[in-house]
Design a protein that fits this description.
The structure is a homodimer. Chain A contains 3 helices and 4 strands; from the N terminus they run H-E-E-H-E-E-H. Chain A is of the alpha+beta class and about 100 residues long. Chain A has a single domain, classed as 2-Layer Sandwich (Gyrase A, domain 2), CATH 3.30.1360. A 4-stranded antiparallel beta sheet of chain A has the order 1-2-4-3, covered by helices on one side. In chain A, a hairpin with a 2-residue loop joins strand 1 and strand 2. The longest helix of chain A has 18 residues. Chain A is globular, with a radius of gyration of 13 Å. The termini of chain A are far apart. The interface between A and B is medium-sized, with 15 and 15 residues.
Chain lengths: ~100, ~100
């Protein structure tokens, strides 16, 4: 469960996604919103998902932009858990 | 109003505060909480204050830690507006 994904699997996943990219030991994506307030609403949705999965991304807020970085520290890299949270965020984001 | 503070004024202010320090063109402080959830509650309080003042800090969330960086981009440095928001955050933080 907590083994880092092999390069091929991760690259395949990244190619199929919108906006996620490898950044060091993490996968990262920046989301842009019309307002600071909208960015904070998104952030609270991410926080809820993170708590549900007990898996917490690094989050940087720059006014109307929110950047997420996901990795599994215990595994020392990106695992299936990270992809699961990434998918959940994107699903909630397009749904909301 | 939007002139950067002179070095002496800023240093005097920093010495009188708990945890704020100069970081490049900004003043920065890291807050630590018992849980991720508590960090997010704090973040929402900061967001409310930022919207009230129409002045938005850079915010980095690392699980149970929240780092704020304040500067007045239009003035190219730290102004009275930044100190005002910093004080408001610390006041709300100790009050909450």
């Amino acid at each position: 469960m907590s083994k880092p994904l092999d390069k091929e699997t991760l690259n395949g996943w990244l190619q199929a996604q919108n906006g996620w990219a490898k950044e060091g030991n993490t996968i990262a994506k920046e989301y842009k919103f019309p307002t600071f307030r909208a960015a904070i609403v998104f952030l609270n949705r991410v926080a809820g998902l993170a708590d549900d999965m007990n898996h917490h991304p690094d989050i940087d807020i720059r006014f109307d932009k929110v950047k997420l970085r996901l990795s599994s520290h215990d595994a020392g890299g990106v695992t299936e858990r990270d992809l699961k949270l990434a998918r959940a965020v994107d699903h909630s984001s397009s749904a909301g």
